Amino acid sequence: MSTKEKSLNFIEQIIEEDLKNGLSQDKLRFRFPPEPNGYLHIGHASSICLNFGLGLDYNAPVNLRFDDTNPAKEEQEFVDAIKNDVEWLGFKWDQEVYASDYFQELYDWAILLIKKGKAYVDNLSADEIAKQKGTPTQPGVNSPNRDRSVEENLDLFERMKNGEFEEGEYILRAKIDMASNNMLMRDPIMYRIINASHHRTGVNWKIYPMYDWAHGESDYIEQISHSFCTLEFLPHRELYDWFLDQIYDNEKVRPKQREFARRNLSHTVVSKRKLLQLVNEGHVTAWDDPRMSTISGMRRRGYTPTAIRNFADTIGIAKRTNLIDVSLLEFCVREDLNKITDRVMAVLDPVKMIITNYPEGQEEWLVAENNPEAEELTFRKVPFSKELYIEREDFLEEANNKFFRLTLGKEVRLKNAYIIKGESVVKDENGNITEIHVTYDADSKSGSGTEASKRKVKGTIHWVSIPHAVEAEVRIYDRLFTHENPDGNKEVDFKEYINPDSLKVITGYVEPSLKTAVSGDKFQFQRLGYFATDKDSTAEKMVFNKTVGLRDTWAKVESKE
Ligand code: ATP
Ligand code: MG
Asked: I need a surface site. Which of 22, 39, 283, 343 has the fewest CB within 10 A?
C-alpha cells in the first residue's frame, strides 16, 4: 500500500483485509467494465478513478473490459469514445478485453451446467415467466420445463445457438431455487436469442449471455481479484457467487464483487439511456455537447482531466447514494484552470471608446503577463490604439462611490495600459450610448516606472483595440436542467426540467494573440471567466465555449428565488 496519509475508505479496507488474510499483493487485479451503449459520463469517471486509482495505489493491473453482451444497443462508435475518454483522463489499462472474447468459453461452461443438471432450456413466454416468478413475499412456481432431460436441453441449446428459433422462443435458465428469498435466484435467465449483428462477432452468435452470467465469469477468466460495481448490484452478488461456484477451481483467484454508491450530480442526469434521449430528441447537439455530463462534453467545455480526477478524489466513494452539487465540480475546474491558463482580454458586450487625446493612427504593442500563477512568468504583446472596445457594463455616466469602473469625470486604469478619464458620451436617438469619449494620461503606462504609472486609481478594466480585435462566436452555457435533481421524481419526466436558456450564443471581440488558438486551448478571459476554443473554431470564424465563471454565481441566484 502506498503511504497514504488519509484514512482508508471502505473499499481499501476490504482489500487490506484480503491481503491480511493471505491474498498476495501480486494477485490484485481490477477492471473497469463499461457497456458500449453510450458515452461515459461523470458517474463513470468516479468508477474509473476508483478502479484505476486502486491500480496505481497497489501497483496492480486494471483491465478495460467492454461488457458487450447486447448487440441491439452496442456500437463500435461507443467503444472508441470510451477508450478515448479513459485515456484522456490519464489512465492506462493493462488489457483491452471484451465479454464477447469469452462467448465460446461461456457457451462451453453453459453446456457444463446443463450436464450437471444446473441449467435448462425453457420455452415459456416472457409473460408466463414473469407470472411464475412470484413476488418478494410469495415463492415462485417451477416451470413445467424445469425437468427436461439433459439430452433434450443440450439439443435445444445447440439449436438455439444455431439460429433455429425466433427471438423469445427459447431461453436458457439456471436451475437454482424458485422459492429463494432473493428473486434473482429464481431460475434466472442465462442466455437469450438476439437476431442482431454484433459490433465484434458479427452474426456468428444467435444467443447472448445475460449480464449476471457473463460478468462474474469474465472476472474469473481475467483473474480479477475485486470486482467493484454500483449498489444496485448488491442483490446480484448471491447470483454472482452461485455462478462462480459452478466453475471455480481452487487453485485460482476467486473474484469478489463489492458495491459502492452510484455518484449523481445535481442539475444533470447521469444515465447513458437518458443522455441518449437528449441527443436523439435534439435537446442537445451531440454526445459531446458542452452542456452534457459526458466526459466528452466536459472536455469540449474546457474541463481538464486534473479537475475531474480531483473532483472524484474529493467526493471519494460512499456506501449510500447521494446527490453531489455540481458547484463542487466547477470549483475543481476553476482551481485547475486558475493554475494553467493564460490571462487574455476579450470583450463580450462591446461599446466603443475613443481616447480623444491619443494620436490618430498610432499603435503600441504593450507588454502583458500571461499567467501570474505559472512557475516561470511569460509575457506577450497586446496592441493598443485610439479606439477600443470596453465592456458595456464597465461604464456608467454617473455612479456612486462603490462603482469602481469607468464614469464621467473619474479615472480608471486600462489593464496593461494607461489611466483614462471619462469625458463625454455620444448617444443614438433612443438614448443608447454608442461612443464613450475619454482622455488618457500619456505618462501612466503600466510598468513604465514613472510616477504617473504608479498612481493608484480605483479600478482596472479590460479592453481590446478595435482595429486589431478578432471577432468570435462565444457560447455561454447555463445548467441544462433547472431542477437540482431532474431524475428524482418518478412522476415527472426528467425532460420537463430542461432549462430553455441553457445556451446563449453571442459575438465578442478577442485580442489578436488568440488567432492561433486551436480546439481545446484554454484561457482566462480577464474578469469574465474561463473559456476554451471549440472544435468548431476555424481561422475564419473563431468559436469559444465558456467553461466556468470566475466565481460561483449560481448559488446566489438560487438563494434569491
Ligand atoms: P448507465 O445507466 O449510465 O448506462 P451503467 O451502470 O449501466 O450506467 P455501465 O457502462 O454498465 O453503465 O458502467 C460501467 C461501470 O461504471 C460500472 O461498474 C458501473 O457500476 C459504474 N457506474 C456507472 N454509473 C455510475 C455512477 N453514476 N457512479 C459511479 N459509478 C458508476
Ligand atoms: Mg449498464
From this structure: 22
Give the number of the atom of ligand 1 that is nearest the alpha carbon of residue 48.
16
Same domain, 227 and 273: no
The answer to whether the beta carbons of residues 534 and 300 sit under 8 Å apart is yes
- The DSSP secondary-structure symbol of 490 reads T
Cell of 210: 445475460
What CATH number does the domain containing 480 carry? Answer: 2.40.240.10
Query: In this predicted model, what pLDDT tens digit does every residue of 321-334 receive, in sequence order?
Result: 889 999 999 999 99
Ligand 1: residues within 6 Å at CB?
33-35, 43-44, 46-47, 67, 229-230, 262-263, 270-273
* Phi-psi domain of 8 (left: phi exceeds 0; alpha: psi -120 through 50; beta: other): beta
At residue 5, the pLDDT reads 53
Q: What is the pLDDT of residue 65?
A: 98
Q: What CATH number is associated with residue 29?
A: 3.40.50.620
Average pLDDT of the segment spanning 258-287: 97
237 catalytically annotated:
no
Host domain of residue 22: 9-260
Tens digits of per-residue pLDDT, 459-489? Answer: 999 999 999 999 999 999 999 999 999 999 8
Q: What is the dihedral of CA 431, 433, 437, 440, to 10 degrees?
A: 140
Overall number of domains in the chain: 3
Phi and psi based region of residue 263 (left: phi greater than 0; alpha: psi -120 to 50; beta: remaining) = beta
**Rounded Cα distance, 512 and 525, in Å:** 13
Q: Say which residue the cell 496519509 belongs to.
A: 5
Which residues partner with 343 through β-bridges? Answer: 524
